[in-house]
Structure formats: structure tokens, C-alpha cells
Amino acid sequence: MSITAARVVTSAALVALLAGSALAGPWSQGNLVVLQVGPSQNIGAGAPNLNAVAHAVTLREFAVGPGFSGNDVAINASSTGTRLTVSGSSTSEGAMNLSADNRFLVFGGYDAAQGQSGPNANSSIATSINGTGAGTDVARVVGAVDLAQNVNLNRLTDSYSTNNFRGGASLDGTSFVTNASGNGLRNLTPPATTTSGNSTTILNTRVARFDLGNRLFVSSASGMFFGISEVAAGTATLLPGFPSSTGPSPYDFEFISNTLLYVADDRSVASGGGLQRWTFNGTIWNLQYTIAVTNGLRSIAVTIDALGNNLIYAVTGGASAGGVTNLVSISDTGAGSTVNTLATAASGNLFRSVEFVPVPTPGAAALLGLGGLVAIRRRR
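The chain above was modelled as a monomer; its predicted structure follows.
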């Protein structure tokens, strides 16, 4: 019913006023950030396609109309320091979402150099070991990037051995709930690098995020959980109406209100993939309709267009691990809504997720509130 958060962008005059200010940051408010994996490395079978070893991550700013600005953040993938890389072919990795206060982009990966494999030559970086204390351990890493492109990489040294590390959720960028293809949800509070248990109700989760007043939700497609679940007091409960048997393949999701939810499903159109619109009748959630998207979707970011329709930006799934990925937009006018392609990942690269540019720090937000603003509802 009520919108859970607001997104504020400045008028042109105020943007100009703050352009040189550290408060405004190098990204432009209202733009998108796309998490890109690649370029591919000529390592192992399948080159030049992205394979399962560690690949570099770049956060790319995108403005609807002009396209990519070139104002990118390349996350460390070198041979030194704390790195954050992801598997090139594990399509479930590379999820990115905003913290609940909208100030940080949150995503996950491995403390491994570009091109590094798991224990065996050319094996998946996801099969690497973590938690033994040995020099061959590959720590999992949660990244948090703010409006000014400050990058914090936070290592986990005790969790998710041999699991695809998928990322996490955060309230304010100071602590994280992490998730992967196994071992359930874990809590991380830097500077500590060891985690504590959160929930093992669902061991294999895909996307975790805080929404609807800082409540924790996760998507999954395993066991008896094929949809979106709420996690509270260590227990995950599937939202009523979502199936407890095989079928759906949900990834990212956003609540628009207590009664409206969008879910990205990466199945083919024939199997029901695309953008799902779910509504709550007070008892159960019902799938109202699905907007068909070729190759399905894995990531979404929602706002409102000039006509008052829900406007969804999304990343398509790609027909396979090495398939083409697109950034698309959809103005939700019903089941037959048009899907517009905004950008296509270059050969040897993949788009994995999309989000809006983070908001300024509280001090900057207060300054922006002095006047000349256009408020755009940001659904979180």
C-alpha cells in the first residue's frame, strides 16, 4: 500500500551547483549502474567465451538515452590486495542491489585474481576452498560502493567453501547478510572476517535484499522454496501463493508495496520466464501476469515513468552461460507491455545486474532538500 522508500534527484540547476562537491559524487543521480563481467580471458576451453574461472567486475554508469557514460568503477582483480571477481560462466553470480538506506551498491565475489581457477586447472573458482586457514584458501568478498565511488571490499574467511557466492544484503553498508548456493544465510560485520549464522532454512538462495520496512527476503528455487521467502528470527517462510515444487526460476525481485511485487524469472518465454507481476489479496500472493522477455530476466530496478506507470529496468538472462545479455526497459501497462533494448553486452562480456545510482550521504540529501527538486518514487 505505501511506497517503502523515495528516490530524489536534483533539478539541473542544483546538479550544476553541486557538480564539484564531494557530496554529489562522480555518478549522476537518476542514472543506472550495470554490473558487467569480463572481458573474457583466453584461459581454458571455450575461449573467447567467459568460462568458470575468476573474471573481472566493472560497475558501469548508464544514462537512458546517451548510453554508457564511461564513468566506470573497475573492481580490483589484480594479483595483490583484496580482490572481488566472479565466475565468468556461473550465471547466478554477480547480483547487485542497493542497501536499505539506498546509499550503497552491494554485491559479492571472490578474493581471487582475474584468471584464477579452483583447486584444479581451469576449474570453477566457485569450487575453491575457504575456511581452512591455508594459504590456498579463497575468501569470499562482499563489496559496497557509494555515490562517490568509494569501494569497500569485505572478506569472509570462514564460509561458503565450494559454493557459488552470490552476494548479500545490507541495511546501511556497515553489516551484511550473505548468501550462496549452499550453507544458508550468514551475518558479516566488518572489520571481522568471520561470520555468524542467520538462517539455514534454505541452504541454496539466489538474491537477498531488505525491503518493506527493512524486512529480509530471499529468492530461491530449491527444496520446497520456489519463489520469494521472508526471513525472520532465523527462519525462512515462503510467501503464501508461491509454489513449493519445481517450476519457477526466480532471481531478483522488488516490492512496490505490501500488495505488489515484481519478480525476475530467467526461464524461457515458453516456460513462463520474464517479468512477473504478483499481487496480494490479503491472504495469498497471486501471479497476475508475466511480461514475456526473450531469455528471461535475472535483475531488475523499478521506478515510475512520466505517465505514472511502473518503469522496470532489467538485465536479461542470456540463452546460456555464454549467451548474449541485454539491458532493457519495460513500462508496465499490462501483460503485453513492450520490452525495449537499451544496450547489449559486447562480445566476451556479460551484464549480470542493474541498479540505480546510490543516493548521497544524509548530509548531502539534506542539502539537496533545500529546493529545486523533483521527487521520483524509488520502490524498495
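The radius of gyration is 19 Å.
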